[in-house]
Amino acid sequence: MRSRIREIVVKELRQALREPRMRALLFFPPVLQLVIFGFAVNLDVNNARIAWFDGDRTPASRELRERFEGSGYFTVLAMPRRDREVRDLLDHGDVQAVVQILPGFARDVDRGRASVQVLVDGTNSNTASLIASYANQIVTSFSQRATQARLDRKLGTSVPTNILPVNTASRVWFNPELRSRTYFVPGVIVNIVMLVTVMLTAMAIVREKEIGTMEQLMVTPIRPVELIIGKTVPFAGIGVVNMIMITLAALLVFQIPFRGSALLLLASTLLFLLTTLGLGLFISTVSHTQQQAMMSTFFLFLPALMLSGFAFPIQNMPAPVQWLTYLIPARYFMEIVRGIFLKGTGFAVLWPAMLALAVLGTVILSLSVMRFHKRLD
Amino acid sequence: MAIIRTENLTRRFGERTAVDGLTLEVEKGEVFGLLGPDGAGKTTTLRMLCGLLDASAGAAWVADYNAAENADAVKDRIGYMAQRFGLYGDLTVEENMHFYSDLFGITGAERVRLMAQYLEMTRMEPFRNRPAAKLSGGMKQKLALMCTLLHKPQVLFLDEPTNGVDPVSRRDFWTILYQLVEGGMTVFVTTAYLDEAERCDRVALMNQGRLIRSGTPDQLKSSLDEVCYEVKCADPRAVRERLQTQAGVLSVEPAGAALHMFLAPDVPVEPLRSLAGAGCSFERITPSLEDVFIALIRKEEQSAGKRG
């Protein structure tokens, strides 16, 4: 039995690694994807393009503009004079926000009741809220300074006062610079490993059906379990190698912190591969052609991606959808990978997620093995 | 002693009955041909015998084991070469053979000996390092055959093995099969080629899932009640039309430049001779397997038409 499994593994690896092109295809694209997606998944706002509508044109309004430009968050691209120009700029997407200063701004500042209008393009709600909050910060600090100046003038001397008596002293743990990329890149790793292993497994088995070797294998003494192990072990191996390569790429290219245990990550990867290989096997039992297998893979991959918590926090989903996510293996692996990379979390915290992966993997694999008859119908 | 036996073997796919109450026996050491047009149910029969498909009714025994209940025992004793034998195109001739040897647990000196023997028998030795995808059709068949022989099966099942293979390779292939039978193997082959059926010890004719008749090719040829004439004339088409409508004429089929005419027994041929005209020659012939095949299928369909 062992030699039969070994021969299938050897054959599978031989086929997969024979051609230099195939070899390159197995390992190069995952790394390339990680690098490209890693650069793409970035929600931080730097240099937001804004237009500056100055109806006042006083030293005070100019000072506010300099504060915006000096903050590093904003670049003033246009100085419109008319309302129609403001509309055009937003409509065309030339700018992401418009700051409007009304005539009499400097006078109102002196009286302590000025207002600045910030029009934000809300098409992308995430960027919009970041821009609004940055603008708010700048205006607040401007207004703080203006109040101080007003007080100084009234008292005739400079007494530093704390105008806002309570301050929030937030310290951010795990991702102090709040780089969104640090949060997303570990998730990209999960997605790539999932896609590659599910697809490879499904395709490898369906290909045997297509070229007719499956019928031939069925009349040999090989048992279904041996065939399944022989077909999945090589892809587990390729999955682990891929995981290591893209993890290294993430660490080197994006300087993502890695605070946890590499061994724990490896163990969790193996558990996760149990579920993806099981899924690939399952797809292969319901598909007759490689095209069908490809379609099924994508049908299953998309919900797995959306519900894994990769981009959308699970806590924000309605309860029924949250229950659904418990069935998604990627959800648990996402939690584990982020925990190990960013927080350095250990087994004591991550074991429930690992257990969930083990249970899901066993269930999916058993289901597939049961469906995988040594019969043609 | 029968090494293959089926009893009322039936397989339905939904509404359609692919194999309908098939009962037959194959003796050890025979070359047995299952002959029939496409869609007759030959492949389905073969798959049931190999334990790849379950029967809807009836049963089959191969080498004393029930093909459905003891599928694994059957599989250890048979070789099965599917219509489109799955070879791994990106593996070489030798790698394909090693792979199947391992699956069948053939190791060590035994493997070396068998591989050398088969490579020599099939004259494939020079191509041992060529990827299977780059072999000709005939060589692919030989490689497939070698792979099914590695575990020295008692019964060899071949599903239209020489489909799409050139005549020379076909003859080669049959030479190899005869060598195997000499060594004591039983060969069960399906085919749609009549010349190939002539090479079998015994033939069973199958049409629309049913067994029509079985026997040696000679038995089948003489089993026909009809009398067969070869008619040669200048204008076969016109003569055919004239003859076809006569009472007692069962059918007139073109055969090359001539016609083959089937008469019901005891129908006088003289009136037909004068009807056909002076330029025609009539010669009584022994029907070929093809004539028998066509005549039997015609009868079968006529009686089915009457029943329906």
Summarize this entry quickly.
With 377 residues, chain A is mostly helical. Chain A contains 14 helices and four strands. A four-stranded mixed sheet of chain A has the order 2-1-3-4, with helices on both faces.
Task: Give your account of this protein's structure.
The complex is a heterodimer of chains A (377) and B (308). Chain A has 377 residues and is mainly alpha-helical. Chain A has two domains: 2-41 and 179-371, no CATH class; 48-155, abc type-2 transporter like domain (abc type-2 transporter like fold, 3-Layer(aba) Sandwich), CATH 3.40.1710. Chain A has helices spanning 2-17, 20-40, 59-70, 83-91, 105-111, 125-155, 180-211, 213-218, 224-254, 262-286, 290-306, 319-325, 329-343, 347-371; strands at residues 48-54, 74-78, 97-101, 116-120. Chain A has a four-stranded mixed beta sheet, with helices on both faces. Chain A is elongated, with a radius of gyration of 29 Å. The model of chain A has no long low-confidence stretch (mean pLDDT 86). In chain B, strand 7 (155-159), helix 6 and strand 8 (186-191) form a beta-alpha-beta unit. Chain B has 308 residues and is an alpha/beta fold. In chain B, the strands form three sheets. In chain B, strands 6-7-8-3-9-10 form a six-stranded mixed beta sheet, with helices on both faces. Chain B has a four-stranded antiparallel beta sheet with strand order 2-1-4-5, with helices on one face. The relative contact order of chain B is 0.13. Chain B has two domains: 2-215, Rossmann fold, CATH 3.40.50; 221-307, Alpha-Beta Plaits (2-Layer Sandwich), CATH 3.30.70. Chain B has helices at residues 42-49, 71-77, 93-104, 108-121, 137-149, 167-182, 194-197, 217-222, 236-244, 270-276, 289-307, and strands at 2-13, 16-27, 31-35, 57-62, 65-66, 78-81, 155-159, 186-191, 202-207, 210-215, 227-232, 249-255, 258-263, 281-284. The model of chain B has no long low-confidence stretch (mean pLDDT 88). In chain B, helix 3 (93-104) packs parallel to helix 5.
